[in-house]
Amino acid sequence: MNIERKPIRRGGIRSAGYDRGSRILEVEFDNGSIVQHSGVGDEIARRFLASSAPASYYRDNIEDEFTSRRVK
Fold first, then answer.
1. I need a labelling partner for 20 at 20 to 30 A (CA). Which of 32, 38, 41, 44 fits?
2. Is residue 49 within 8 Å of residue 14, measured between CB atoms?
3. In the prediction, which pLDDT does 42 show?
4. Whole-angstrom Cα distance, residue 63 to residue 72?
5. 3-state secondary structure of 56
6. What is the DSSP string of the chain?
């Protein structure tokens, strides 16, 4: 699966993207690792991608709330 990510470049997050059909949020970190979270709803993904503090939003609402899989 290829999810198009958009640059974020804040708080240790390099880029992120969301696939609405599969409900997968993909996050690339500054260290080069890429993690996919499954079961993420549209609203959570939208708020994360639009957040002025994406790292905080990620830690508070996504990191431990959704199943994750490291892809890189």
1. 32
2. no
3. 97
4. 16
5. helix
6. --PPPEEEEETTEEEEEEETTTTEEEEEETTS-EEEEES--HHHHHHHHH-SSHHHHHHHHTTTTS-EEE--
Question: 23 and 40 in contact (C-beta within 8 Å)?
Answer: yes
d(C-alpha 42, C-alpha 68), whole Å: 17
Classify the C-alpha dihedral 64-45-30-68 as positive or negative: positive
Which single residue is written with the structure tokens 């080069």?
A: 32
Euclidean distance between CA atoms 58 and 21, whole angstroms: 21
* pLDDT per residue as tens digits for the range 2-52: 899 999 999 999 999 999 999 999 999 999 999 999 999 999 999 999 999
The CB density around residue 60, as the number of other CB atoms within 10 Å, is: 12
Beta bridge partner(s), residue 26: 17, 36
Structure tokens at 60: 């508070």
